[in-house]
Amino acid sequence: QSTATATTTAVDWNKYSYIASDDGGYWELKPQYAYQGCGPARIPHCKPADSHNPSQHPSQHRHPAATAITGDAAETRYTCLSPGCPAKPFKRHADLQRHYAQVHLDSSSRDSHTCDYARCARSTEPFGRLDHFRDHLRDYHQEDICKRGSQVDEKWLKGRKVSSRWWRCTKCLTRVDVAKAPDHVCPRCKMVCEDKRKRVRGW
Ligand SMILES: [Zn+2]
Ligand SMILES: [Zn+2]
Ligand SMILES: [Zn+2]
């Protein structure tokens, strides 16, 4: 008899991860819960729990009979479905993705890397891979981040744009402010700034 465990009626959102996709995304049962069979494997984005309650959508109030309502219906909004999230629906799917990555993913599972130069186009269009962010910092911003596994070349370093106030961790690409970390150790991954990179900064 297995009736004792078959009483799941409400969805336990803690067991789901939100996966963003072009058609609005969906909730996926986390792998560690999948074997328990404690809910549907996927719940589509288009069926939020309150979709049956029209009073939650004041913009969709009935128009006078003569007015066409097709214009409103065509407007798409992307709603964050993380339980209890107060964020307003987003106009663009990319905005929802960024919000989700910034607010709901912990740093270890985050796979989007936004450039920290305020005026850079990639400050709003994150890189999916850390390596691509690394290449961007080296090739576009002329930073002294060398390719992974290669030696720091002193001649090359002299032509790079470096600041004596900060350096960037080669490993996790965090910008490290010397005023906050005078020991030149990355606060995030504990990597120490390479000696040659210190020297070129006059430290
Ligand atoms: Zn959210
Ligand atoms: Zn950039
Ligand atoms: Zn680091």
From TrEMBL:
InterPro entries: Znf_C2H2_type (IPR013087). Signal peptide: none annotated. Residues 78-104, 113-141 form the C2H2-type domain. It comes from the Eukaryota. SMART domains: ZnF_C2H2. This is C2H2-type domain-containing protein. It comes from Sodiomyces alkalinus (strain CBS 110278 / VKM F-3762 / F11).
